[in-house]
Design a protein that fits this description.
With 315 residues, this protein is an alpha+beta fold. It has 2 domains: 128 residues, Aminopeptidase; 157 residues, 3-Layer(aba) Sandwich (Aminopeptidase), CATH 3.40.630.30. It is built from 9 helices and 13 strands. Strands 1, 2, 3, 4, 5, 6, 7, 8, 9, 10, 11, 12 and 13 form a 13-stranded mixed β-sheet that branches. A hairpin with a 2-residue loop joins β9 and β10. It is globular and about 65 Å long.
């Protein structure tokens, strides 16, 4: 076996491994990974992705990539063909890619969420590399039965393109000083939140945007909550983001938003719904558990700043 830079690899060479990866995440997470694989292939074609692959003879059997985004390196998939797992292959590959990402000139931040990783011992690697990390869960709920409509003092209306700025402001305000904001630069500024919201709504950044299950919540005509939803596959709806303004938290608005999205998914004939949550976000985790979500996959969010800087996690 030998390791090669990803930049030397053609989309045609990587195609069989990407096809296996699509089938794997579809089965594991109810996630149609085809759009992501197409983006990886496009990135290879444009020489826009960095990373490494492991080659066994003529066959590519594992890969890991990272990309530059908003002043940081973001590590993506860490994937190995099934016959080559549990040999330490992905861990060795990831270790080298993390070192590469940390060494990028002028780039002082690296992030990774290991949802799409077959490296079982990844957490130890991040710790040794100086990352701050927190556990997250990918939760799934069947949609066989409708939930009673949640009621509250707010009015829900469909989220349209004209609401992207309002949605971004709510997302940013709800994350100020939070653990998720410390580990994910996406939430750091209103402008980055606007880019994040536009990616979800306009560019299918997390599955195909679902306008029927996405809402703005208003109280006395003032926007106080937002939920962005998508379809990760033909059978699975996903809650990409649910945020409530600080002044409106603690009054059941999250329940109203999530319940409305779940019932919208069900009315469209979807079989399951999914979302991700940080374990230390206990209020949200309790809500999702109460609404019937259960753990499908355990992973973690990791972030690193070039020393002497350090990720400041809230107490």
């Amino acid at each position: 076996m030998r390791t090669r830079p990803l930049v030397e690899v053609s989309p045609r060479e990587l195609a069989p491994l990407l096809q296996e990866e699509c089938a794997h995440w579809n089965a594991e997470l109810y996630w149609d990974y085809g759009d992501v694989s197409s983006a990886v292939a496009s990135g290879l074609e444009r020489r826009a992705l960095s990373g490494r692959v492991v080659q066994d003879g003529l066959r590519l059997v594992a890969y890991c990539y990272y990309m530059l985004d908003a002043g940081r390196s973001v590590v993506g998939s860490v994937f190995s063909a099934e016959a080559f797992r549990d040999r330490g292959l992905e861990e060795s590959l990831l270790e080298r890619v993390l070192a590469d990402a940390q060494a990028v000139p002028g780039n002082d931040r690296v992030e990774c969420q290991t949802l799409f990783s077959t490296a079982r011992a990844a957490d130890d690697l991040f710790a040794r590399a100086g990352f701050q990390s927190r556990a997250r869960h990918y939760l799934v709920r069947p949609l066989s039965q409708a939930l009673p409509a949640a009621t509250g003092r707010v009015r829900l209306r469909p989220l349209g393109r004209e609401d992207l700025g309002v949605a971004a402001e709510i997302v940013h305000r709800s994350h100020e000083g939070s653990l998720d904001a410390a580990l994910n630069l996406t939430y750091a500024t209103p402008a980055l939140c606007r880019g994040f919201v536009e990616t979800l709504v306009l560019r299918a950044g997390c599955g195909r945007f679902d306008p029927e299950a996405s809402f703005i919540a208003e109280e006395r005509g003032h926007p106080v909550g937002v939920l962005l939803a998508s379809h990760l596959s033909s059978t699975n709806g996903h809650v990409c983001q649910v945020s409530v303004s600080p002044e409106a938290q603690g009054h059941g608005l999250g329940t109203v938003l999530v319940t409305s999205a779940l019932n919208a998914f069900r009315s469209q004939g979807l079989a399951t719904a999914s979302l991700s949550v940080t374990l230390e976000n206990r209020r949200a985790y309790r809500l999702y558990t109460r609404l019937g979500f259960r753990v499908r996959n355990e992973f973690a969010a990791h972030a690193w700043l070039r020393p002497p800087a350090r990720i400041a996690l809230p107490a």
